[in-house]
Amino acid sequence: MQMPLSFAADQRFPEVLNRLKAAWPPREEQHADPLSQLVFMLVSADTPSAIALAAYRRLRSRYHGWPAVRDEAPEVLLRVLRGIDKAVEKAVTLPRLLQEIEDRHGLLELEFLAGWTTQAAREWLEALPGVDAMISTATLNFSTLRKTVLALDPEGARVVRRFGFVAPAAPMSALDRQIMDKIPASWQAKEMSSLYSGIHKLAGTYCHKGRPKCAKCPLNDLCPTSKKASAAILQFPSKSQKAVAATSD
Ligand code: SF4
Is the CB of 214 under 6 A from ligand 1? Predict the structure, then answer.
């Protein structure tokens, strides 16, 4: 059966998703409430998953509810968040973030965003301390809000750039919107989180920051970068020039 496509859809998307799911079958999804997801994304930003998860679990077990974290002193939070990237900054930001949600919304929760458009919800979240596009989109897609939006960090951005899903020079802040213009019209939150998961497996397994392993990649016949000579994919550094992967960020 033909998949309905949006006006400007990239027709590779359904096949890309099918192959990613075949290579790395998605796990059963569990969705946190949006405030918990937001806090987790802030804690885990730029931090290896295992370290981030351990810090988040310490946070949850030490405090009974987010109001207690809001009222905590940053120097105490810093001990709980030890090991994560930018721990000092995040220990200051986290209580401010929670306080500002309560100040702006009147309650310390984010369920109200369910009735908002994705764009409006993104703008509201991205005006909060410490919340960037990756944190807002992941909160909207991975949580119980289940918004149809793709979360992209630099690893995922590298893949979608090499794949030609976005303009080569597009800034990080524009990537998810360029992707959303091209996905099939029938796709919803589940497809977006499966795409995110598959893209990150691909980035870690084949589509490395340096020279990608295109010969083994399950998407190589669909990817324009795989057709380039290896010299065009990886430029070796000279004395006066740092290594630059022609197709990387
Ligand atoms: S074919 Fe190569 S460049 Fe394209 S997505 Fe796969 S590993 Fe990355």
Answer: yes
